[in-house]
Amino acid sequence: DHRKNNTEQLVGNIFSIYLFLKIRITNLMNRVY
Questions:
Q1: pLDDT tens across 1-33, in order?
Q2: Which residues contact 16 (CB under 8 A, 6 or more apart)?
Q3: CA 9, CA 27: separation in Å to the nearest integer?
């Protein structure tokens, strides 16, 4: 199914962005305290 493949790709992109932001926020928190 083509749509299923697109959905998996979209979820993968969102997950990658989420991890990236989480690491960035963690680094900022460590820098502040």
A1: 678 889 999 999 999 999 999 999 999 999 876
A2: none
A3: 27
